[in-house]
Amino acid sequence: MIRLEPLTGHHDRKGFDCGREALNAWLRGTALQHQGKGISRTFVAVPHDEGAVQTLQREGFEDIGRTSIFGFSSLAAALVLIESLPAEIARRYPRQIPVTRLGRLATRADMQGQGLGRLLLTDAVERARVAAQSVGSAGIFVDAKDPAAARFYEHFGFRQCADSPLKLYLPIW
Ligand SMILES: CC(C)(COP(=O)(O)OP(=O)(O)OC[C@H]1O[C@@H](n2cnc3c(N)ncnc32)[C@H](O)[C@@H]1OP(=O)(O)O)[C@@H](O)C(=O)NCCC(=O)NCCS
Asked: Which among 100, 105, 117, 173 is placed 20 to 30 Å from 43, CA to CA?
């Protein structure tokens, strides 16, 4: 029903609404620009095919079309100081380490609670693992937007960092 693919200019970025204007605006205005400059990569959840579009329309998602975005995640390379990591994990690292930053992750407000966030997060973690086989990255770092988002990441094994409960980290190795 749903597949994940890299964001392109063909996707309907304006039609996406996760209920958080800052995230909507980033997808509309910044994601493609950053992708073009190699700053971050964004992956979108989209209808698998025309059959999926029709099924979803029958289920009441009347605005959905072939170019609709159901959710997205973005990844970038980053450097973090170990003071920012969970204390017990920081011990094994030098002073600063390369990580993969999960910059943003969001799902359509009317599709939340149906497993889409899990799909996007699992995919992002797998992409970070694969990339780390070729370019050093010790783990995945995320800045959660609020305590509820932080709980979502904790649910998947991310640990709160020492300097902020909204920064979370998941070792890859
Ligand atoms: C946070 C967000 C991405 C979750 O997406 P979702 O599609 O609703 O999540 P799913 O339905 O895939 O949930 C997957 C699992 O996470 C759990 N979960 C979801 N939100 C959670 C939360 N806030 N706290 C704890 N667990 C949560 C679900 O219970 C589910 O658990 P299970 O599979 O073990 O039963 C989504 O609510 C969202 O886009 N919110 C607005 C934007 C945002 O805050 N993004 C994060 C910013 S960094």
From this structure: 173
